Every structure is written in C-alpha cells, then in structure tokens.
Amino acid sequence: MTPVPNLRSIVIVVLLAALVLLPVYVQFGGDRFVLTLFTRIVILALAAVSLNLILGYGGMMSFGHAVYLGIGGYAVGMLAHEGIFSGFVQWPVALAASALFALVIGALSLRTRGVYFIMITLAFAQMAYYVFAGLARYGGDDGLTIYKRSEFIPPLNLSNKVQFYYVCLALLFAAIYLVWRLTNSRFGLAIQGARSNDTRMRAIGFPTYRYRLVCFVIAGTLCGLAGALLANHTDFVSPATMYWTRSGDLIIMVVLGGMASPFGPLIGAVALLLLEEVLSGITEYWQIILGPLLLLVVLFARGGIDGLLKQVRR
Amino acid sequence: MTLFIEQCLNGLQFGLLLFLLAAGLTLVFGIMDLVNLAHGSLYMIGAYFAATFAAWTGSFVLGAVLALIATLMIGMAVEVIAMRRLYGRDHLDHVLGTFGLILFFDELVRLIWGPDGMSLPLPSWLNISVQILPGIQYSAYKFSIIVVALAVAIFLYVLVMRTRIGMLIRAGASNREMVGALGVNIKLLYTLVFGLGAALAGLAGLMQAPILTVQIGMGENILILAFVVTVIGGIGSIRGAFVAAILVGFIDTVGRSYLPDLLRLVLSPNAAATAAPALSSMLIYLLMAIVLVVKPQGLFSAGEK
Questions:
Q1: Cβ atoms of A148 and B257 closer than 8 Å
Q2: Most CB atoms within 10 A, among A42, A89, A193, A211?
Q3: How far is the alpha carbon of B129 from chain A, nearest alpha carbon, in Å?
Q4: Are B273 and B207 in contact (CB under 8 A)?
Q5: Going by C-beta distance under 8 Å and a sequence separation of 6 or more, which residues neighbour residue B134?
Q6: Residue B243 resides in a domain
Q7: Are the Cβ atoms of A252 and B96 closer than 8 angstroms?
Q8: Cβ of B100 and A136 within 8 Å?
Q9: What mean pLDDT do residues B160-172 have?
Q10: Half-sphere exposure (Cβ direction) of B98: Cα atoms closer than 13 Å
Q11: What domain count does chain B have?
Q12: How is residue A141 annotated by DSSP?
C-alpha cells in the first residue's frame, strides 16, 4: 500500500525544498535581503523547535525561553570581546552556559505548576535581563557589538552569507531530527506521559521531576545554540534579545505552527516572520493587525497551521 | 534618618501602586481563572486618557475622573469582545491571546497619540511639599497617592467581604455553575469584575503619570512586577496581593537606595558600583524565587481569600 500524500506532507516537503534551494535563487539574481531574512527565520525556528520540546511535548509552559538566546549570544559576544574568536571555544561555552542556567532555574521552577511555572520562568528570564543590562564592561543596556564572527577551520567561514545560512539550516534540521528521535524514545514517551497525567506516571514508578528537568535542560541548550547563531547573524547582542516579549514571540511561533508536531515550530516561525514582513510592508502600524490575528488563532485554530493542514484531507 | 523615612514612604507609595495593579490581576485570575497579560495595557491607557482629558478640561481631578470612567468602559468592552471567549481555556491560550491584545493596544496608542510620550503636569496645589512629621518634608502628591491607594484598598476589602456584590464575586470564584443556577447573571458579574480590575489598573496608571512620562510600553515593565506581586502573594488572594505589594515596594525602593552603600562595605568601590544596579533590579525576582521554592503556592495561597 503506498501512502497517499496529503496536503500536510506536500506543504512540508515544499517548505524544506524551498529552504534548501533558497541560496541558489539568491545567487541567480534574487534579492540578497531574502537570504538575511531567511537566515533569521531559520535561527528563530531552531529556538522555537527547542521550545516545542518542553512546551508542546512536555507541557511545561516556559515564558522565559528567550533568555537562552541571550545567554548563548552573550557567551559568543563576551568571548569575542575578550579576544577569543575560535568557534570551538565560543560555541561549547554558549551551550554549557545555557545548559547550566537551564539546570538551575529548571530545578527551582519545576517544583511549581501551572501559572506559577509560567511566572517563575518569566521572573528568572527578567532577572537575567537585568544582570546583563548591568554589565557595564559588556555594553550594559546598549548591548555589545561583535566585530568578528566565530572562527572555524577554513574553508568554513561564517562571514560568507551562503555558508552561514547552510550552517544554520543544517543545525535546524539536526535539531528537528533530534527532537523527533527524542520524543519517540522511551524518554520522550515518559515526558509526554507526565504531560498528560503526572500523578499516574509517578505512581507507575517514573521519577517525572528528573525526566522533566533533563528535558528542560536539553531545550535550554538547544536554544543556547540558536542564541550563538543569532549573535553571529546580527553581529550584535543586547539584553533586549532576552526581553520577555521575545519569549512571547517564540511561544507564538510554536502555537501558530502547531504544538507537539515535529515541523510545527518551523512552519510557525516562517509564517510569523513572513507575516511580519508582509504586514509591515502594508502599513507602519502592522501590529494592530497582528495582535487580533493572534487572538483569532487562539480562538479558532487550536492546532495551529499544522493542525489545519492535518484536517484537510486530499 | 530623614532620608530613610522618605525612602520608606517612597517604598510604601510604590508598593500601594503595585497593589492597585495586582489587585485587578488577582481578582480576574481568582474569579475567572484568566491570565491577563493585557492588564498593563489598561494601565497605559489610563495614563494616556488622564493626560488627554486633563489637557482638555484644564483640571487635573476632572481629567482623572473622566479617565477612570473611560478605562472602566474600555475594560468592560474588552471583556465582552475578547476575554469572555477565553474563559475555561488553557492558560497558554490566555497568555497568547492577551499577548496579541498587548500588541494591538500598543499600536493603537501609537496610532492615536503618536510615538512620542506625553506628560501630565501636576496642578500647583499638589506640586508642593508638606510637613508630615516634625522636620520631615514629603511631596504632597506622593503622599496623596498613598492616601488614595489606601482608601481604595479599604474600599476593595469592604466591597469583597461586606457587600452583596462581593458575596456573589466570592461565590462565583468557588462555583460558577451553582451561582448561575441560582439565578445570578454571572456574565454581567464577570464583566463588572473585569471592568473593576481595569479601572484599578487605570487608576494606577494615571496616578503614576505625573511622576513618570506617559509612553508606549510603560505597562509592560510594571506588569511583570505586578505579576511578581500576585505570585508572591498567592494567586487569587487580595490580602496576599496587598502584603506582597508592600513587601516588593519596600524591598525594591530601599534596596535601590541602600544596596550600593552596603556593597561598598564588602566590595571595592568600583565593583560595588557595577554590581549594585544589577543586584537591586534582581532583588524582587530573587524574593519571588525564594518564596516559590519555600511555598510553591505563594504566601497566602487561594482558599484563604
């Protein structure tokens, strides 16, 4: 029996193919800005994929996920500021710092549930925001300009836009694959079980707190990677990177695309950022359209775009 | 000593202001089980209305009263149009939907009033210092904020604990269906509660307006503080919100003014000057983290409303 390709798989395949072929299009006379825009989309999609792991699969409603974008970015920025440009140092430090932060705040936050969890993750992210805003040596409020991108062994050169795009895209695909494998493993099933019914999972002998904490740390680390990429992309990092509205943007991407779906966050990131781009082209006051649109998505499209695509049968 | 008393009064004033915001949040959460991120937008709208109406009427008090009524109306309209549809949904839906409302309101304000901030000048009879204790002068306006906010706190207590409406509110919080079955118009009740919360937020905004500038995004920063207050106090508890608001107000204000000196005792002056601003901004978040670790439901957990 050959599976009938439905609309959802067609959309995903087309999207992936478009992402892979985008630099080719740009090489042949396309707008160079498109490549910059899509590099950004791919990086934020990576962050959204990591958030989906805890939000969609784990049911952990973190409202401070953008903090890892900042931590990963500052790890790169601060090391570059001190004259260490090697990506083999910068990136592991970014990942380790994010993992450590996730471990500490996860260990504390996961003791709470529901709205308290939302608020405590938010509070920790704001705390980090003020810490970095207070670092006068590294630019404080104004942020830190990065004069040189992370260095790897030639011919890999992140200053080359096409190469950098493919690095980001490869890492995004790797992350989606990782999350997919993870959620279909015993570990992932235990996490999803704890989302549905924590008490039962504990009753049959799963130490769900530890499972959740590991999941939280993995998601934080992945997002730290996105932060390192984002800092390299913008050549700049500032406390605004981890402001709470940025965490809101990441949640929007996940929910808009479709929670607990492997490709949902990617679809959401592409949809949201393209929508922003289109709307801001129409009117200066584009958020006046985006805001109510979000409300409508919440009210009428519960599974996000991925959920809508699933409903459409060919 | 004089400075210390003044800082304590500032802390009290800031705490009471936070209470006005947190009371609305905690009421809406306790009764409708709704996380309302757009609460800060109502605070902003209150301030913009006050600045506009005060300029139109030429009177600070009249402008404030008009702004209060207008914010109440906006709040009830938002409840009827949007919030009503979010009751009973997942908290994630609340966060996302009301986040959308923040974007909408911020942009709407930018469209109507322009991107530049506004200022709300104080009338001359409030723009003076009064002697509150022998030898201690304090701004008459800040002092009047304390008085008004305390009066509102007492009013809220009486309203919720001693009146029929308050009884319905408390009953609606514990069992919505049963109250509806007894013939109470629960929809109207919810609209009123939301409007009340909005008016409180608007009051906080318009009272803060002469001290800070009225600008877009002013609601977002203080919203997070108000959330911290509700969480420390225990979500749904007005009494908890009051205690936590005063606590947060004190710690934030007194911390900001004395932490640099304290740090200088243990650190080099240079390090102290760097660490103090960051640490004093962190203090209340630290407090929240500690409270939640010790009591994951907040100081006054719901049930003790």
A1: no
A2: A42
A3: 33
A4: no
A5: none
A6: no
A7: yes
A8: no
A9: 85
A10: 26
A11: 1
A12: G
d(CA A288, CA B132): 47
What is the predicted ipTM? 0.84
Is A189 a domain residue? yes
Could you tell me if residue A79 is inside a domain? yes
Q: Which residue of A has its CA nearest to B289?
A: A120
Nearest CA in chain A to B102: A291
- Chain B residue closest in CA terms to A123: B285
What is the reported pTM?
0.88
The answer to the question of residue A293 being in a domain is no
Q: Is residue A114 part of a domain?
A: yes
Range of the domain at A244: 46-248
Assess A294–B contact: CB distance below 8 Å, yes or no: yes
Q: Do A201 and A208 touch, CB atoms closer than 8 A? A: yes
Tens of pLDDT, residues A223-271: 999 999 999 999 999 999 898 889 999 999 999 888 888 899 999 999 9
Phi, psi of A235 (to 5 degrees): 55, 30
- Measured between alpha carbons, how far is B192 from B28 in angstroms, rounded to an integer? 10
Which domain, by its residues, includes B33?
2-216
Total tally of structural domains belonging to chain A: 1
Q: Name every residue whose Cβ is closer than 8 Å to that of residue B104 and which is 6 or more positions away in sequence.
A: A287, A288, A291, A292
Task: Note whether residue B305 is domain-resident.
Answer: no
